[in-house]
């Protein structure tokens, strides 16, 4: 059975639920139990998808230690391992890169290929596929033109060009674009900033108000992704908007095409690797 790993920003857990539900080749799912997994497994429970928990990534056997499968098991399906990383890594891009690279080195010993659900994220992951090309097939989120997406919003609306066109359509009015997971993690994200900078909540709010006003931010767009695994986010969004005096409006156009295409690209890479090794 092929072992496929997903190393992902916690913000993209809904897209993983979607992939699991829509790939009949996936025969079992293992979730790394690292403290960032609770919301993800709750969603799996809600959609009726079974899974097992690994208390830590090191508890999952390396590929070299797995029992060799006989010919009858060849191509029998996919064993999926999902490893959610903490949202707060985005606070410092270098720390994000160091953590992702360190985790990929571990993960590469346990999976036939890894789907990296990140974008450029501060321009620190642009060379990750090449850096690991001799170790393990890795696919990061890329748009139809082959460009690595800037962030999860760009991935959700189809890539760099649609993202740029969308931003231009705001005519200079600063606009936050929130997916349901963005809405759900607003407090968590700002708590990271508060804790790591040693500031009070009031100080964070004042600092944000200054930055938002200087950048002409006035609105929050609720991006419809087509995925509804994250629920009851309206209160958090309204509190955020009210705190900073933002207008809220709905925005259509989200979809999963990039997530589907890159997932298939990884599967194709794994097949190519297995064919070459045979």
Automatic annotation (TrEMBL):
One Pfam family here: DUF1638
Domain DUF1638: 85-256
InterPro entries attached to this UniProt entry: DUF1638
Top-level taxon in the UniProt lineage: Archaea
Protein name: Uncharacterized protein DUF1638
Source organism (scientific name): Methanimicrococcus blatticola
Lineage: Archaea, Methanobacteriati, Methanobacteriota, Stenosarchaea group, Methanomicrobia
